[in-house]
Design brief:
Distance between the termini: 29 Å
Helix content: over 70%
Number of strands: 0
Structural class: mainly alpha
Order of helices and strands: HHHHHHHHHHHHHHHHHHHHH
Radius of gyration: 24 Å
Largest sheet: none
Mean pLDDT: 83
């Protein structure tokens, strides 16, 4: 064939149009995902008071934070131990059965938590929730299977939104419906509500998980190719022939774990995801702590209401930002360039902490300069969050074959669960240590974060310049 003919054929080759999102199945998957933070975050408003009332600390309120931190971290700690195995199991038995087990576990654990009157019972209920819940990794596998290269980034961009909304809604009813006998005595006047004052928010979370269980059982279609082979899809999941750029069909079994762990093209995206999660969860813990810390010791001294307004405004604005810009940015620049650029926005977020501390020490009040720096910090955070949707796509495409997608997502989610289990306590403690001992002028925690960020930037630069299509 001549060069002219080759050029002509290339020009005439039709470009792949963006496949419409499978709205029904994607919506159901995100609904299940939404249940996770709903069940994890509703205890935050009342857990400290519950620890005091159970007299776990023997009347020493200085120890309340320690025991509350243990309860808050147990969900992610136990999830880190089991999530890979649930994701791996979903490669064999299907995605739907594993989701149903996880939702049933959340339902049971929420009920048990509300009925617990001893610390060991609280520990057991949170361990049940984490150990039986491998839904996050499975949901990512489902989204990877019901989308293709043209709409995957658009679908994955919705995951952080589901997490943000769930994490925002849960504390509202967790705090609002605690001790209902004191707020609505005419409705909750029985001795049961006095003995179990936090059961109502727990049963709300349990009911939501149970509702999600039945919605999944009735309407969510199985997406695992091995379980769908030979069957016509019952809803808007694209059939195998409809999807474009799929994995090759020659690999018909999951890749062994030992092979995955020694495959650089798999572990490099997972390492990026793990480091991203660690830096992000550290900032997630430090931002409200720094905002609430008194001005005299280097914080902003904001009220809980002001902090809540900032976080709520950020949540709403961030959700809209991700929906509008992520898919467009990936289409225009590609996954790698978006990820490498987005993680650089961590730098102004971190630098803003000591800058605000210096400004408020000079001005002695929260003025326009501080609010401008808060705005810059939160806008930069929205840019950083673009990296989550992109790394989800990169991890999904790193799977050696479609039958190993659950295992790959399980490994990546394990790294995130570990970061969420150890990150908050580590960096809040380092913040306190920095302030108490005036290390680097009270800025040691930010120095450590900058070192970790430099490592993340280096890892991001090692991602392949061309992310292979499936």
């Amino acid at each position: 064939m001549s060069n002219d003919e080759s050029s002509s054929s290339l020009l005439e080759k039709p470009q792949a149009e963006k496949t419409p999102l499978p709205k029904t199945q994607l919506g159901l998957a995100l609904f299940v995902l939404f249940t996770g933070p709903m069940s994890a975050h509703y205890i935050f408003p009342f857990i400290n008071q519950l620890i005091r009332e159970l007299d776990v600390t023997g009347g020493d309120d200085r120890k309340v934070g320690y025991y509350a931190g243990v309860i808050e971290s147990l969900f992610y700690a136990t999830q880190a131990l089991t999530i890979f195995y649930w994701s791996r199991l979903s490669d064999h038995v299907g995605r739907k059965p594993v989701l149903l087990v996880g939702l049933m576990g959340l339902t049971m654990s929420n009920l048990c938590f509300g009925l617990s009157r001893a610390f060991w019972a609280l520990v057991a209920s949170r361990c049940i929730a984490g150990a039986l819940n491998g839904n996050v990794g499975v949901i990512k596998s489902i989204i990877g299977e019901i989308t293709d290269d043209t709409n995957m980034a658009q679908a994955f961009a919705l995951i952080p939104i589901a997490f943000t909304v769930g994490a925002s809604v849960a504390p509202l009813y967790g705090g609002g419906f605690a001790k209902p006998h004191g707020h609505w005595p005419e409705l909750f006047s029985g001795s049961f509500w006095v003995q179990y004052p936090y059961f109502l928010p727990c049963v709300i979370s349990a009911s939501f998980a149970a509702f999600s269980f039945f919605m999944t059982a009735l309407f969510l279609d199985e997406s695992l190719p091995l379980k769908r082979r030979g069957r016509n899809p019952l809803s808007d999941i694209p059939s195998k022939d409809d999807q474009i750029d799929t994995w090759g069909d020659e690999d018909v079994s999951p890749v062994p774990l030992s092979t995955l762990l020694t495959t650089g093209s798999v572990m490099l995206p997972i390492a990026n995801y793990g480091m991203l999660a660690l830096v992000d969860i550290a900032l997630f813990s430090l931002v409200p702590l720094f905002y609430a810390t008194p001005v005299e010791i280097g914080g902003l001294g904001l009220s809980p209401f002001a902090i809540g307004v900032c976080m709520t405004a950020f949540g709403v604005g961030n959700g809209l930002f991700q929906m509008i810009f992520v898919a467009r940015a990936v289409d225009y620049f590609g996954e790698r360039r978006v990820f490498c650029s987005a993680v650089l926005a961590f730098f102004p977020i971190i630098v803003a902490f000591p800058t605000m501390s210096w400004v408020i020490q000079a001005q002695k009040e929260v003025g326009p300069a501080i609010w401008a720096l808060i705005l810059v910090q939160l806008l930069s955070w929205a840019v950083v969050d673009m990296s989550y949707a992109v790394i989800f796509v990169i991890v999904t495409k790193a799977s050696p074959n479609k039958h190993s997608l659950g295992a790959v997502n399980g490994l990546s989610q394990t790294t995130t669960s570990i970061a969420r289990a150890v990150g908050p306590a580590t960096f809040t403690s380092l913040f306190a240590f920095s302030m108490e001992h005036n290390c680097f002028g009270g800025n040691l925690v930010y120095v450590v974060l900058l070192i970790l960020l430099c490592l993340l930037v280096c890892l991001s630069r090692r991602l392949p310049r061309s992310i292979s299509k499936r």
